[in-house]
Amino acid sequence: MNSPQTLNLITLLSDWKLRDPYIGIFKGQLLNTLPDAQIVDITHQLELFNLSQAAFIAKNSYSFFPEKTVHIILSGLSFSAEVKPVLLFHNGHFFLGEDTGVFSMMFGVASNMEAYQYNGDMTLSTTEKLACMASWVFQDTYVKNTVPYPALKFQLSNLSEPDYNAERKTISGKIAYIDSCCNAVTNIPVSMFEAAGKRPFIATVSNIRSLKITRCHPYYNPRESEVFLVYNRLGFLEITLYKGNIAALADIRVGDDLEIVFS
């Protein structure tokens, strides 16, 4: 029996949706190897094969969980028989998935990151390999059952980062995610926006010049009739319209550029 301080806690993040049975089947595979596992769904509604979106959500959600949680990223799996999933230990948390480039998007080649590769039965399916590696973590045998995987050999992909240009008085960022309420989540941290000073601004999205955003609130303001920026719970700016589906109405899409110009 695990002590109260020990939780076999696993989070799942994917683009698999919930209409099909595959998430449920994978949870069954996890529970077969870890009957005491507690499994938490982050989201399964990511855009198909959008690794930058998966990296953004994973990078900005894992810290809400206890240390030693295993975060399994299922987006972009190839399901090839030759796949050897990788396990990362970074900042007190474990991250598990296929080396699709998503890990370098999340952490670059951080010097304080341990990485290991699957070293077991290659006749198992990709999801069975992931379940085995999760069980090795909680049994504290992952070093024995895996081999070191140098971080410099990760598939290198870049996650677009926002930029604050003090001289031009601008912040440049991108739309990272459209949530279920059709709000457009940006990759611009609230801290960057506040560092620019509380000054009048105009924010525009890519070529949607008819949309000019000039207001920002730290919360969803029911008295605001215009499109506005809001601080979301992940600590990023979000474009919203109270009781309105702004992303659909304005045709805002993931990857669109956002520019904030301060006066």
Short description:
The protein has 263 residues and is of the alpha+beta class. The chain has helices at residues 22-33, 51-61, 102-107, 126-138, 142-145, 190-195, 246-250; strands at 9-13, 38-43, 70-73, 86-90, 93-97, 114-118, 146-148, 163-165, 170-178, 184-189, 201-205, 208-213, 216-217, 228-231, 236-240, 257-262.
Overall mean pLDDT stands at 91
Give the class from helix and strand content and strand pairing: alpha+beta
End-to-end C-alpha gap: 61 Å
Shape: elongated
Number of helices: 7
Level-1 CATH class name of the largest domain: Alpha Beta
Relative strand content: 25-35%
Total strands: the figure is 16
Return Rg in Å. Answer: 20 Å
CATH topology of the largest domain: Rossmann fold
Domain module count:
2
User: Which series of helices and strands comes N to C?
Assistant: EHEHEEEHEHHEEEEHEEEEEHE
Main sheet properties: 9 strands, mixed
Q: Unreliable runs, pLDDT <50, ≥5 residues?
A: 1-5
Corresponding CATH architecture of the largest domain:
3-Layer(aba) Sandwich
Q: Roughly how much helix do the residues carry, as a percent range?
A: 10-25%
Assembly context of the chains = single chain
Give the CATH superfamily of the largest domain. Answer: S-adenosyl-l-methionine hydroxide adenosyltransferase, N-terminal
